[in-house]
Design goal:
By secondary structure, the chain is mainly α. The chain has a 3-stranded mixed β-sheet with strand order 1-3-2, sandwiched between helices. The protein is built from 18 helices and 3 strands. The protein starts with 7 loop residues before the first helix and ends in a 5-residue tail after the last helix. A hairpin with a 4-residue loop joins strand 2 and strand 3.
């Protein structure tokens, strides 16, 4: 495995998807392929620095199909908002309890100075470490079954803001991983582990385009596997004395990012339905948002709201629940490996709309999360 420099296979992926689009027999197939092809065109532009001038027809087959795509994604958005609002008391209590437990810890992190410059190891060492990481989880054989078909690419984040992402074609089950500003350092290897969490997730996917679209567009569990792998990699690097200082800095950085995302999710749980339904929360000033929620918080958090920037419900919740649930799953993976009930049941129900019953069944609560959080902090003492 190494970072690919030849995009021929990506061009081939695009050509195959174009053929699949022409043969698509259902709206759900066209929706899944349209989402995939749009992202593929975007990343190709980011890699080659050349506009591809693709059209609605190239991506969706026709203007009519494009409009159907937009309408369907709007429907998914409404379902997410409705579900979030129906469960807002549950979300508010869970998020609020975790914030109360962690605020004093994270406040200390906020004052920490950490470097954004990362030391590098050799290319050979980098990929040896990644393979050894997979072996430590007894996943190397699983990955070797299909890893030859997974492309791994680097790109300049000046052309695309995401730090990394996965493209998965649900029709032929092919995957490609992309890492922004990749180097042979701790940041890149942790991000690579994050994206291979998605690869692992989708390697267990044998559903149809309907299930895939439900998972991609309405599930709040889509970041669970990826954040789990991220956690496991950070622990592996520190325990095996690989780029330890940089990895500790990265651990603190991830803690801050997920805490801010948690606060954003908590703020969303305090806002009225009409605000969320129409996406007004991102149009209001931090002062106005604070005025709407001030009775629920015990200090002025306008500066934190400024730092969050985006109060999109789904975007925040998928990472908030990815962080919370992966913490509890990690405890089980540490003890039993990957063939444990919680993870397997999550895969079985991942395309379903959010339900607290699943989390209650596996003791996902503020106490179990904070217990794992405090255990993770001990890595900073090594």
């Amino acid at each position: 495995m190494e970072f690919g420099e030849d995009i021929d296979s990506l061009v081939e992926r695009l050509a195959n998807a174009t053929i699949q689009l022409k043969k698509a027999k259902s709206a759900d197939e066209r929706l899944a392929l349209g989402n995939y092809m749009y992202a593929l065109y975007e990343i190709l532009e980011a890699i080659i620095y050349i506009p591809l001038d693709y059209t609605e027809k190239d991506v969706f087959g026709s203007h009519k199909n494009c409009q159907k795509f937009i309408k369907k994604t709007d429907i998914y958005h409404d379902r997410i908002i409705n579900n979030f609002f129906e469960n807002r008391d549950y979300n508010r209590k869970l998020f609020g309890n975790i914030i109360n437990e962690l605020s004093y810890i994270v406040d200390g992190f906020m004052d920490n100075q950490y470097s954004c410059m990362y030391n590098s190891i050799s290319k050979g060492e980098f990929f040896d470490v990644f393979e050894s990481f997979l072996k430590s989880l007894n996943l190397d054989k699983d990955f070797n079954k299909f890893i030859k078909n997974v492309g791994v690419y680097a790109y300049d984040t000046g052309n695309k803001s995401a730090a990394g992402f996965l493209l998965f074609n649900p029709i032929d089950k092919t995957s490609d991983v992309f890492i922004g500003d990749a180097g042979y350092d701790s940041r890149t290897i942790v991000y690579l582990a994050h994206e291979f969490g998605h690869v692992y997730d989708f390697s267990k996917f044998d559903g149809n385009p309907i299930e895939y679209n439900n998972y991609l567009h309405r599930s709040l569990f889509i970041e669970v596997s990826s954040v789990l792998f991220e956690r496991l990699m950070i622990e592996y690097l520190i325990n095996n004395d690989v780029l330890v200082k940089d990895t500790k800095d990265l651990l603190v950085d991830r803690k801050i990012i997920y805490y801010l995302t948690l606060i954003a999710s908590y703020i969303d749980s305090l806002l009225d339905y009409e605000i969320l339904r129409n996406g007004k929360q991102n149009k209001y000033s931090s002062e106005y948002i604070y005025s709407l929620i001030s009775k629920h918080v015990d200090r002025d958090i306008r500066d934190i709201i400024d730092g969050i920037g985006d109060l999109d419900v789904k975007r925040n919740c998928i990472y908030t629940y990815g962080d919370i649930i992966s913490m509890i799953i990690k405890e089980k993976v540490d003890k039993f490996g990957f063939d444990k009930d919680m993870l397997l049941e999550l895969f079985e129900h991942r395309d379903e709309i959010f339900s607290p019953e699943f989390l209650d069944k596996y003791n996902v609560n503020a106490g179990s999360y904070v217990k794992g959080y405090q255990k993770e902090l001990k890595l900073l003492e090594k």
